Amino acid sequence: MLPRPLTPLAAPNGAEPRGRTLRRAPLSRARAGLGGPPLLLPSMLMFAVIVASSGLLLMIERGILAEMKPLPLHPPSREGAAWRAAAQDPGAPTPEAGDSDLRVLQDVRNRTLRAVCRQPGMPQDPWDLPVGQRRTLLRHILVLAGVLDNVDVRLKMDHHSDLVFLADLRPEEIRYRLQHYFKFLFVRDPLERLLSAYRNKFGEIREYQQRYGAEIVRRYRPGAGPTPAGDDVTFAEFLRYLVEEDPERMNEHWMPVYHLCQPCAVHYNFVGTYERLEADANQVLEWVGAPPHVRFPARQAWYRPVSPESLHYHLCSVPQALLQDVLPKYILDFSLFAYPLPNVSREACHQ
């Protein structure tokens, strides 16, 4: 499973030199909350194509491997037009150019985002968000601004000390990057994302077992005792916990992507999907003018992604009423990013 949702920002060609030098190139992600004025949900027709996933906010800068220098506050006059034209021109070549189904999905996703985000009261800028939501968003948009001598280097980065977030920058630097950098978001099927987080966090990571698992078991398992280990949380217990959680206070790994990445407040130039992660990531690298030797890393050999069969099994193993309570919390993720709602009818689950 991917560590967090990522969202990339890349500087326009020849744009501002960077402000700091790191030993490792950081990844980027995003999260944020929903709040303020009531939302206008998409129509039932929009629900036919529903979506969402872990929002990967990567901020990829044009000079990924170049030495970083101070950040100018004013954009260059004509530089950086290439990626801008490609991102805004519907006819620009994309990985989906020869695939009509993917082009339709991409078009539905773009139209749905525009329709929802144009509704009165929807945020048009991070500064339109309440303070708490803006803080969450800026703390999870990562700025790729490091230096790597070798893109094949094997290392494990500390998310807190090795990465630069928008929240680490001054307000004028934040505004500059949001206005002039290439911004992209990666999404994933909402329920697949939840199952992946469940398996990884409660099956492998002691910190999550102690911090969240023990509380979930105490709350939802009769006779659990005062100090459960938290390493045997069931998927149904996890879903019950999500039903009662405020989306704005959720952990980033299961917070709805709408709250995490705020796709109305941040105008992403590209929305990629986990299902086409390698192809979409390489398209982004091409758009931002990354050197040819910079490529999307191969999947780690030990990683075992959630399979459709595993997802189907887990969804059919929990009460349908519980799923009906969980889905509304992620409905904007489904609808905005064109992912279908799961079929957990009795007939489908008996196949």
TrEMBL record:
Keyword flag Glycoprotein: yes
Enzyme Commission number, as recorded: 2.8.2.-
Family: Belongs to the sulfotransferase 2 family.
Enzyme category, top tier: transferase
InterPro entries: Carb_sulfotrans_8-10, Sulfotransferase
Subcellular localization, as worded in the UniProt entry: Golgi apparatus membrane
Name recorded for this polypeptide: Carbohydrate sulfotransferase
Primary site of residence: Golgi
Gene Ontology terms: cellular component: Golgi membrane
Biological process, per Gene Ontology: carbohydrate biosynthetic process; dermatan sulfate proteoglycan biosynthetic process
Membrane topology: Single-pass type II membrane protein
Record region (Disordered): 1-26, 77-99
Entry keyword annotation includes DNA-binding: no
Molecular function as annotated in GO: dermatan 4-sulfotransferase activity
One Pfam family this sequence matches: Sulfotransfer_2
Lineage: Eukaryota, Metazoa, Chordata, Craniata, Vertebrata
Keywords for this protein: Carbohydrate metabolism, Glycoprotein, Golgi apparatus, Membrane, Signal-anchor, Transferase, Transmembrane, Transmembrane helix
